[in-house]
Amino acid sequence: MSAAARPWRLWALPLAALVLALAIGLSPLTRGSGVSVETAYSLLLPRAVLGALVGGALAACGAVLQGVLRNPLASPYTLGLASGAAVGAAAAILVGGTPQLVPATFLGALVGALSAAALVYAIAARSELAAETLLLAGVAVALFGGAVTSLMHYLAGKVELTRMLLWSLGSLVAPDFGPVYLALPGIALGGLGILWVWRRLEVATLDDDSARALGVDPVKVRRVAFASCAVITAAAVSVAGPVGFVGLIVPHAARALVGPDPRLLLPCSTLLGGAALVAADVVARTVWFPEDLPINLITHAVGCPLFVLILLRQR
């Protein structure tokens, strides 16, 4: 199979993951519990769709950021967006919101992530959004956000603290399609910017002088890429919590499959990310059934050794 054909055949991966999620989850829910097949599907399908949406969105952002910043460690989380979302979600819980009341934590996390993005942008704008400045500003904002979140943990009561910690572990639990509908507008809006960047991504991965010589403004590309990824990540993290490693690991795995060509890498990363997060959720809800393990536990447990393996293969 040619490299050009692979990403378009990989469309079957998220579909296969959705079928797997429904098939594996159906038996434990219906066996001896009195739960009908229709009810089981209504419980499983929303979280599977949410996983595919969030995983694909975060992986696409990771692929774009690694390309335009020319740094293999770039991801939505190294730019401080997840830390900002955690501050907003913790603030919403502290003043009375709960993870079950999605609009409360959703709005808090969304505002927090976008505020963090604005702060990182304001810092990096002084150096024309240089890649190094963006990354270092993101690290600084992430550390500051972590300090603010720790302060709110210290001030919270036991109930609020438990809710904050549960949110920070990430979850795709969705009783209906409400979280999908909440995240979809932001992901779709940011996706339009990603599509604009995609057409220029191959040139934008070159150094700034070479990109300008070929008629592409690298500063504008970085600006659109950062803003688009900020909106997408804010929407995704707001409904699923700070799901780790997907935006960092999946683009590297996709690069191993189809090579570094951004025209192939971006769709491959999107499809692979959606399938990977759905599969991780299947593991999270079946390995300790009837309890759900935190999704971050699975993504970190699988992502860390996989990342090391990819690094060793590349060398």
CATH superfamily heading: ABC transporter involved in vitamin B12 uptake, BtuC
CATH C-level:
Mainly Alpha
Classify the fold: give the CATH topology: ABC transporter involved in vitamin B12 uptake, BtuC
Detail the poorly predicted runs.
Answer: 1-5
Give the number of helices.
14
Largest beta-sheet characterization: none
Query: What is the element string, with H for helices and E for strands?
Result: HHHHHHHHHHHHHH
Strand content: under 5%
Structural class: mainly alpha
Radius of gyration: 19 Å
Structure overview:
It is a single chain. This protein has 315 residues and is mainly alpha-helical. It has a single domain (21-28, 44-314), classed as Orthogonal Bundle (ABC transporter involved in vitamin B12 uptake, BtuC). It is built from 14 helices and no strands. It is globular, with a radius of gyration of 19 Å.
Q: Mind sketching the topology for me?
A:
Layout: H1 6-9, H2 12-30, H3 37-68, H4 81-94, H5 102-124, H6 131-155, H7 158-168, H8 178-198, H9 201-204, H10 208-213, H11 218-240, H12 246-258, H13 262-286, H14 295-314
Helix pairs in contact: 2-3, 2-13, 3-8, 3-11, 3-12, 3-13, 4-5, 4-6, 4-7, 4-11, 5-6, 5-11, 8-11, 12-13, 12-14, 13-14
